[in-house]
Q: What sequence folds into this?
């Protein structure tokens, strides 16, 4: 393993925790079981997305949320270039397709854009863009 970093998903946990409370308050008059079930589901989703890990080894870049799912990977052979970038409010948080490619993050701010040889770019949120870029460069050079 050349690089491994786990980012705490404090914003994801906070947003979904607040949503769980709001759902309970809104649904409790209709159905206490429905309110409890919805709140527990939102809290579990918040927990599942409360950490984001990126790993780099000599073969590939991997990323995943706390429970290991959802996850993604990119073999270094399919990587064209890497550049530091940032995510904004328009990019949002979570996993989704944007105009600039796929975004995987648990908060706004620093990120790294992985330009693939084929397909849309992938933007990974990280508080260590320079460290991640350096690790990918090291892994890429180790392959040659």
A:
């Amino acid at each position: 393993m050349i690089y491994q970093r786990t980012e705490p998903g404090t914003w994801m946990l906070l947003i979904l925790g607040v949503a769980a409370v709001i759902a309970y308050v809104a649904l409790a008059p209709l159905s206490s079981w429905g309110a409890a079930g919805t709140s527990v589901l939102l809290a579990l989703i918040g927990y599942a997305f409360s950490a984001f890990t990126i790993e780099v080894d000599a073969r590939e870049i991997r990323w995943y949320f706390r429970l290991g799912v959802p996850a993604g990977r990119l073999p270094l052979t399919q990587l064209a270039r890497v550049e530091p970038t940032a995510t904004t409010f328009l990019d949002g948080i979570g996993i989704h397709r944007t105009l600039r490619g796929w975004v995987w993050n648990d908060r706004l701010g620093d990120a790294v854009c992985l330009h693939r040889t084929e397909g849309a770019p992938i933007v990974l949120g990280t508080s260590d863009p320079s460290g991640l870029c350096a690790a990918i460069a090291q892994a890429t050079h180790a392959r040659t």
The chain has a mean pLDDT of 93.
